[in-house]
Amino acid sequence: MHKLPIVCFAMLIFTISWHSSAEEKRYISDKLITYVHSGPGSQYRIVGSLNVGDEVTLLSVNQSENYAQIRDAKDRVVWLPLNQLSSSASLRLKLPELEQQLETLTSQLQNIDADWNQRTAEMQQKLADSDDIISKLNEENDRLENQLVKAQTEISAMSLQQDNKQRAIILQWFMYGGGVAGIGLILGLLLPYLIPSRKKQDRWMN
């Protein structure tokens, strides 16, 4: 008699713990339609159907019949084959998320492509500007080189003219010097003859 309350209490705890552990989220596997029954077996009456990806709550499992008792979104408690349940969401539920991820990745890829195209265009523009600057610098360098050659030519001509002028001045000085020397020489030769003759005339008059 004393064992009966203990056994009942143990069974109650086991039932509560088994019931709470059995209530797990499950999903209808990837089939078009899953028929549900009023009991754990195909011999029981079909009471409805579930669509692919519908979320249900697993209540219990009949291992002998390999059937699962579930509660669906309409709060119906029904049975269906255990192999038609899945612990992960079906592809039908994942598809919108995957499509959203694909759309996000596609948008990011387009943005990256647009950004890359913009950077490429900017680099090409900078390269074109650099080519234009280089071309202008080359033209300016050619112009300066031409001016340098012209200036060097003018300097050479001016140096030649300066040399010619110096030669002409030196020649003039030589000519002046030669003329003065010639005159001096002539005077030096004539003066001795002129001066003594005057002395002789003075003596004769005395």
TrEMBL record:
Membrane disposition: Single-pass membrane protein
Subcellular localization, per the record?
Membrane
Q: Where is the SH3b domain?
A: 22-89
Q: Does the keyword Protease apply?
A: no
Q: Tell me, in one coarse class, where this protein mainly resides.
A: membrane
UniProt keywords (A-Z) are: Coiled coil, Membrane, Signal, Transmembrane, Transmembrane helix
Residues annotated as signal peptide: 1-22
Q: Which InterPro entries match?
A: SH3-like_bac-type, SH3_dom_pro
> Which chain regions cross the lipid bilayer?
173-195
Coiled-coil stretches: 88-161
Q: Which SMART domains match?
A: SH3b (SM00287)
An annotated GO cellular component: membrane
Q: What is this protein called?
A: SH3b domain-containing protein
